Amino acid sequence: MRAGIVAALLLSVAALPAMAVEYRSLAENALLYDAPSGKSEPKFIIARGTPVELVVALDKWVKVRDAGGALLWVERAKLLDRRTVIVTAVSASVLKAAEDSAPVVFEAARDVVLDLLEAAPPGWAKVRHRDGQSGFVRVSQIWGV
Q1: Is 47 a domain residue?
Q2: Band (7; pLDDT cuts 50, 70, 90)
Q3: Which member of 56, 94, 133, 139 lies 3.0 to 4.6 Å from 63 by CB, making a disulfide possible if both were Cys?
Q4: Could you tell me if 112 and 136 lie in one domain?
């Protein structure tokens, strides 16, 4: 009996649609609020280009999570479809190829925002620095993918 209940629960969970995590970037410096209204209390300003995870979307407002885990509201108009990532490691090595033995193109310090160019082999992301240099970085060193 118990095994049948467990099996039924597992099947029902497996039938649920997969929820993809969606990230966006800020089009410009933007205020983050504690509620979905410009009349609510602004908590802090987030810099242009910073990646955020979309959590809840309403008409003109989106609840977002930042790399630090804060959950706040931003106006939908402040978001871009363009994707960026932010370095979370003390320093991230951006390599010429998606392999640990590849030469280093550049090092990016914590909190540097990089453009996400494309998905790469598992565990890697292809990124570009604002100065134009590009390469591959381990996803464990960044947030926003």
Answers
A1: yes
A2: very low
A3: 56
A4: yes
Which CATH number fits the domain that encloses residue 121?
2.30.30.40
- CA dist list (Å): 58 to 36, 110, 143: 8, 32, 24
Q: Is 13 inside a domain boundary?
A: no
- The three-point CA angle 129-81-39 to 5° equals 110
pLDDT at 119: 78
Report pLDDT digits (tens) over 25-74: 999 999 999 999 989 999 989 999 999 999 999 989 999 999 999 999 99
Q: Does residue 35 sit in the same domain as residue 59?
A: yes
The rounded distance, in Å, linking the Cα atoms of 89 and 144 is: 13
Residue 33 in tokens: 């609020």
Q: Is residue 115 part of a domain?
A: yes
Does pLDDT of 3 surpass 70?
no
Contact 54, 24 (CB under 8 A): yes
Residue 5, in any domain of the structure: no
The pLDDT of residue 123: 94
User: What distance in Å separates the CA atoms of residue 65 and residue 23, rounded to the nearest whole number?
Assistant: 9
Question: d(Cα 107, Cα 65) in Å, to the nearest integer?
Answer: 26
Model pTM? 0.79
SS3 4: helix
